[in-house]
Amino acid sequence: MTLVHVRPKIWTKEEYHRMAELGLLAPGERVELIEGEIVPLSAQEKTHGDAVTRATTCLVQAFGATHYVRVQLPLDVGEISEPEPDFAVIPKEALALAQRHPHEADLLIEVSGSSLAYDRHEKASLYARAGLGDYWIVNVISRQLEVHRDAVPMPEMPFGYGYASRIVYFEGQSCSPLAFPAVELQVADLF
């Protein structure tokens, strides 16, 4: 008996968008394109929804004058990847100039519960490869903020890149994004 390794179909962003236009992806179906694979997003538990609601208010108050806070919207990070991070803080002029979804963000945040391992590895590797320098994970399980910085090549990571720095902040502490060192966000406000 001969074993044959079958490779999955790798979808481009163009094909992915066309599938949505044709109704092959159900309206409201929660999926994202990661390295050519259509990946289902996990169901949003109450703790996730509460964190997204609170963090939205916090981020808009902190950055709304100069940036758009995109909530669970696509980010263009390559020809075959279009993840939908929980938050992407995008300069207003960058969004105005973009012909597709934005490909840069001054701050990128995932709210993580059941997806924590995926967000720490696959998503972190994907974002690091795209050169996104400030990636935060709001860990709703441990009620802590994980700040990932300094994107560097890391062959052991899924997409060959990772973050050299990971600092954990707890409730009662504050953290400043790299692009906004004068702005201190209270960790507790992100839950």
Description:
With 191 residues, the protein is an alpha+beta fold. The chain has one domain: tt1808, chain A (Alpha-Beta Complex). The protein is built from four helices and ten strands. The strands form three sheets. It has a six-stranded mixed sheet, sandwiched between helices. It has a two-stranded antiparallel ribbon with strand order 1-2. The longest helix is centred in the first third of the chain and has 18 residues. The relative contact order is 0.13. The mean pLDDT is 88.
Give the CA-based shape. globular
CATH architecture annotation name: Alpha-Beta Complex
* CATH topology name: tt1808, chain A
Total number of beta strands: 10
Helical proportion, percent range: 10-25%
Q: How many discrete domains? A: 1
- Number of helices in the DSSP assignment: 4
The CATH homologous superfamily is named: tt1808, chain A
Alpha-carbon Rg, integer: 17 Å
Characterize the largest beta sheet: strand count, sense, and whether it forms a barrel.
Answer: 6 strands, mixed
Give the helices and strands as they follow along the chain. Answer: HEEHEEHEHEEEEE
Q: Give, in spatial order, the strands making up the sheet with the most strands.
A: 3-4-5-6-7-8
Strand content: 25-35%
CATH class: Alpha Beta
Terminus-to-terminus distance: 54 Å
